[in-house]
Each structure stands twice: as C-alpha cells, then as structure tokens.
Amino acid sequence: MRSMRSLFGCLSTSYVLALVIPSMVWAADQPLKSAKPNVVLILADDMGWGDVGWHDSEIKTPHLDKLAASGTRLEQFYVQPVCSPTRAALMTGRYPMRHGLQVGVVRPWAQYGLPLNERTLPQALKEVGYETAICGKWHLGHFQPEYLPTHRGFDHQYGHYNGALDYFTHIRDGGFDWHRDDRVNRDEGYSTHLIGREATRIIGHHDTSKPLFLYVPFNAVHAPHQVPEKYKEPYSKLKEPRRTYAGMLAAMDEAVGQIASAIDGKGMRSNTIFLFSSDNGGPAPGQVTSNGPLRGQKGTLYEGGVRVPAFISWEGHLRPGTVVNAPLHIVDLFPTLLTLAGAPLEQSLPTDGRDAWTAIAHHGPSPHDAILLNTTPDSGAIRVGDWKLILNASRIDPEGETKVAKKARAPRDSVELFHISQDPFEKKNLATAHPEKVKELKARYEKFAAEAVAPKVAPMAKGFHAPKIWGESD
C-alpha cells in the first residue's frame, strides 16, 4: 500500500498537512551554506520502477532506501525510453531530439555522439571551481577523442564507453572496453565492484577545499545478467533470470552504501547532494524487472518506460522522509544543479530543463507547463498537467533486446490520451471522449516535433570488425 499511496498521492488531508507544511517551513528556514555543495549523482541502468524498497520490492535495497529516506522521493520523475537519450538529456538539460539522439542508443560502431557544441553539466560546474569525475558508463560517443568524457568536462574518467559489456571480461562485441582517464585500463573484477571502488577512491583523495561533482552511472542492472554467486543466494526462491537480476541489484546497492560511507568518512555529508535515478524503465517486466503496476517497459512511452524511481537528499536542506509528486524530468537536473552551485545558466543553446528546486524543497508545482517525453518520426508523447498524449505507441529497439509482443502494441496511427492523476496505470484511453484535449496536446507536441533535428542512426557496416580496444584505432 505504501507504493500505491506514493503513486496516487492519495493521502488524507490531515496527513498531507502534517507532512508538507512543516517540510516547507523547515526547508525554507534553512539558510543555504556559502560553500558550494558537493554532488553525487548515481544512475542505474535498466532498473524497474518497482525494484526499490520504498516501492515494496521483493529485492532488498537497504542503502538506496536509507538515502531516499534521508531526503525527498521524486515520485513522478521522467526520463527517456532508452539509455543514451536519457544521458544526453542529463548532461545538457536539453531534450535529445535536439541532439539527433531521440531514437535509440549510441551503438559501439556509431560515428557520432553527443554534439560537441553542447555545454555539458560537468563543463558548467568546472566553470565555478568543481572537481568533476565519472565512474561508470558513458554511452555518448567515443569514435573520436573529442567525444570522450575527459574532453567533455570530466577531470577524471573510469569505466566503459558502451552498454551491454561483459561484467567480468569488460568486452563488448569482441572489443575491450575499460578505461581510466580515457586510456585503456586492465583492472580485473566485476564491473559494479570496480565502479564502486573507484568512486570511493575519488572521494577519499578529494581536496575538500573544492566542491566535487561525482557522476556514477552504473552499468548495473543492464543485461548481460551476471553477478557473483553470493549475491544470488538470498533470492533462491526467485526464478531466473530475475534471481540473477536481484543479485546484480544487491551488488549495486552495496556499492551505493560504500559511496555514502566514503562521503561520511571524509566529513562531506553535511554539504553533499545525493541524486539517484534509473535511466529508463525496466525491460521484460515480470521476467527480469518489475515496473510495479505501471504500464509498459523500457523502450515504450507508457509510464513503465519513462517513469523511474528517483530521489534527492541534502542534509539540512530537505526534510527527511518527504515525497514530491510534481512531474519533473531529468532535463531539470541541469539548471537545478547549476543554480545551486552558483553557475551561470546563460548559454548559446537554450535549455529545456527548468529549475525544480521550489518543487523539490518547497513542494511547489512542476516548473513545466509541458514535458516532452519524446518525439521521433514515428511516435511520441507529451504530458501537459495531468494529461498525457501518446501518438503511435511503438517499440524502440535500442539494442536488439527483448521485444514487446505484437498484441501489446497499440495500432499504427493510434492516439491515446490518459489522465495520469486519475489513471496512473494508463488503462482507459480518453482520446475519443475528449477530442478537444487531444487537439490541445497535439498542438503542443507538434511545436516540439517541428524543432527536432533528424535522428542519427548507425547501422553496422558490412564487414565491420570491432577494434581491440573501444575508443582506440587498431
């Protein structure tokens, strides 16, 4: 019932007043510290909405739960349907349709990446004195050195460029993909362990006279489903592949706990913002992941594909145990963090994100009058207030992964309209009953669609052979 209450927002009036009003006063009364906050931004890969403790998961996530309870859960937090687009939105505060990255992931052989004219989040934070580091998965292009993380604003890089690599060998499609500061690195071990270990090392060596931006995009819990056996032992009652997935999530949660402990051990907790999100909804719900009662999965524009577990915690600034139900999007983290860090928002390319601090800290309304969930030449979706329009709901095939059964797809040229606050599980299509609302949302959507650049695609060239090391020329 706990997850149902947070999803619907159906709390009693007295409970809401008891929770929200004191939190507004409490947060508002806390003066912002003069020191710029450290930021630890953790991104899970392919994690389902229902696979966290605060959504009553059968999989234990005690460290994530503890961090979430120490701050504010974001219960209507949106991302893109698949991986690279979400990362592009996070790094720039701009919808991926402005980058040409709206239709799928950046494949290993792609001759493109996040456009070089984009101002990235680490670049903007470096402008105001931050040390910046990425530990984990980049997935925004590596075909030329200019596209690598250390050329996009990160002082330190550790991890891999592609998705879906082997967790133990660090190989993707025959090429080795593990790097430190954008040079090949031969550290051996399970990738989740290595990422957690490097993140804690960076924290331990950090000069606290400077603020730190630490971005930790785990490849967990994305396929291939691999984990040391000991993590699976508590989940013997689960069937495969969910049992292995549960172990992978437990290993990632353990690493999150290590990162939090490192922050505490360094004496940085009092001025550190923790942020957590998944990059998209869970694939193969019921077999591998759980999106709870939400409809759809990774690659779809239904809530199960684009609505993810998320929270933000900042000691002394956000009241513990609070919940925000205002619709937000991952593009909002860019302007929100820049504002909190005192970095300028002015730039040549306008952002789609909005400063969400009032919504987060003071339970204000969403800063958006419309949130674009995606637009492609074939399909798209937009949320305006409580209404959501989906056009030509179809499967994006990001990596040749699990397909959506044909019977689960909406008909071609379909129009679906849902009232999310009343129907969060998207069971009743109201398009026929509310043609005027369809017209209104279509007009809003088409304005965005008209601004989209042509999608970039990367079919594998005939005779392609992976390099020995991704990111390097043989």
Automatic annotation (TrEMBL):
Keyword Calcium: yes
Keyword flag Glycoprotein: yes
Gene Ontology MF, one: metal ion binding
Domain Sulfatase N-terminal: 37-343
Alphabetically ordered keywords of this record: Calcium, Glycoprotein, Hydrolase, Metal-binding, Signal
InterPro entries reported for this sequence: Alkaline_phosphatase_core_sf (IPR017850), ARSB (IPR047115), Sulfatase_CS (IPR024607), Sulfatase_N (IPR000917)
Signal peptide extent: 1-27
Pfam families: Sulfatase (PF00884)
Domain of life of the source: Bacteria
Family: Belongs to the sulfatase family.
Protein name: Arylsulfatase A family protein
Organism: Singulisphaera acidiphila (strain ATCC BAA-1392 / DSM 18658 / VKM B-2454 / MOB10)
